[in-house]
């Protein structure tokens, strides 16, 4: 009788998912341009050759991982839509959502990674545009298309602003600007804003 441990049954689909998940994590941490097969294999805990066994090129792997990050963004957008449906798409509600969203460092980094990659790779722009298109659609249910687009561009700018500044914009500033863009009156600011 042999004392050898039983061989673990291979699960190619699980290994493929591990590689994609590791790539997505690394994209968020180091950016798309810094990715290497070795870095991905180390993070995924797989042999170096596994990355090329499951993906023909690093670009294929990168695109798949960015698709996963876009799926995360889509899930967050579904949550935003539910809040807007329940509470309305006012400047106050949007400000609350933005302030809450700015506290989610992973979400901000994932969004930044997708948009940054799309700036340099036209094939990824469709993925990156999804957030903007969906947000405009949500806001267009309560506001005209021009106001919905302006508010969405402003919100996008707030997200980028938070990436390069140590302090996020004050909630009162966000709400006031959104109220102007949406054509409504902002609630009076409180001393804590």
What's the short story on this structure?
Helix content is 73%, strand content 0%.
SSE arrangement, N to C:
HHHHHHHHH
Q: How many beta-strand elements?
A: 0
Structural class by secondary-structure content:
mainly alpha
Radius of gyration: 21 Å
Biggest pleated sheet: none
Beta-strand portion reads under 5%
Give a verbal description of the structure.
The chain is an all-alpha fold. It is elongated. It is built from 9 helices and no strands. The longest helix has 30 residues, at 58-87. The mean pLDDT is 87. It starts with 11 loop residues before the first helix and ends in an 11-residue tail after the last helix. Helices cover 73% and strands 0% of the residues.
Topology:
Layout (H helix, E strand, L loop, with lengths): L11 H19 L6 H8 L3 H7 L3 H30 L3 H12 L2 H16 L4 H16 L4 H20 L6 H12 L11
Helix pairs in contact: 1-2, 1-4, 1-6, 2-3, 4-6, 4-7, 5-9, 6-7, 7-8, 8-9
Features:
single chain, 193 residues, mainly alpha, 9 helices, 0% strand
């Amino acid at each position: 009788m042999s004392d050898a441990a039983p061989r673990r049954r291979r699960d190619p689909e699980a290994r493929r998912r591990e590689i994609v998940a590791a790539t997505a994590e690394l994209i968020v941490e180091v950016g798309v341009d810094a990715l290497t097969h070795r870095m991905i294999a180390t993070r995924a805990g797989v042999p170096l050759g596994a990355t090329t066994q499951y993906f023909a090129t690093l670009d294929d792997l990168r695109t798949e991982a960015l698709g996963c990050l876009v799926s995360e963004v889509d899930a967050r957008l579904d949550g935003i839509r539910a809040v807007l449906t329940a509470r309305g798409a006012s400047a106050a509600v949007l400000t609350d959502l933005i302030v809450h969203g700015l506290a989610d460092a992973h979400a901000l980094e994932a969004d930044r990674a997708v948009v940054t990659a799309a700036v340099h790779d036209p094939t990824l722009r469709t993925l990156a545009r999804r957030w903007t298109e969906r947000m405009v659609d949500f806001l267009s249910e309560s506001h005209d298309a021009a106001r919905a687009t302006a508010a969405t561009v402003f919100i996008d700018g707030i997200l980028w602003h938070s990436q390069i500044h140590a302090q996020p914009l004050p909630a009162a500033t966000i709400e006031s600007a959104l109220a102007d863009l949406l054509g409504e009156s902002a609630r009076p600011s409180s001393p804590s804003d």
